[in-house]
Amino acid sequence: MKEVLRVGLILMLICAVAAGALAYTNQVTSEIIEKRLYEEKVALMRELFPTVESFEDKEADGRTATIAYDAEGNLVGILAEGKTSGYGGDIRFNLGIDKEGKLVSLTIVSHSETAGLGARITEESYRKQFIGKTISDSFDVDNISGATISSLAMENGVKREMEAILTAFGGELAEVPPAIDISSLPDGVYEGEGEGLKPGIKAKVTVAGGRITDIEVTNGDDTPEYFNKAKAEVPRRIVEEQSVQVDAASGASFSSQGIMQAVRNALTR
Length: 269
Hints:
Radius of gyration: 25 Å
CATH topology of the largest domain: Sufe protein. Chain: A
CATH class of the largest domain: Alpha Beta
Oligomer: single chain
Low-confidence stretches: none
Number of helices: 5
Strand content: 25-35%
């Protein structure tokens, strides 16, 4: 019995020492990794925004961004992640936006696009076409031959995510859509056009008694599977909520946004 207790105590001591050593190693390693990641972020922020003196991470609208400031505390840039749905799944990318609201950096974080086709979104020659654009510019760039869906996903996704990032963190840099007072609109049928995965989504919006009573989507060249889903769900939600900004149909975000844009444009013209 004494021998069993002795062996047990020895094993407990060995485990305790091993656990302590592991915890210490983990702490030291974590500190080294954290320091390296911080230094890499500092280098990146200085590369993108040469006048940066300090930066901080902020959260807003479910997003996280790193905000860069100059010596006087003025905003000089924003670095944040966005994503869009490509041919093979989600495309995640980082956007660097300067104090004038211009895109200064676009890097692909991850994607599942087809090798040799959609995967070419990672090439610098393609990505640099977006550099210098603001949210008031057209994001139509030279498409990748044989990868139309990947190309359009990037065009629409980068602009949409850039708008969302500036709205959340950019203050005056963001262009806020004009508010629509539906109750003040005269009765009638209004027509507007929006852009989903492809341009040319058209809608007729009927207003009666200060309310949207009907929405007819009359045209759209997006992929039928997704467009039809958005067409069935988004107009109904707009009428129910009496708002031009509603939840997108699941899996059909581009077509949904295009329909909402068409409705908004109809009511603001």
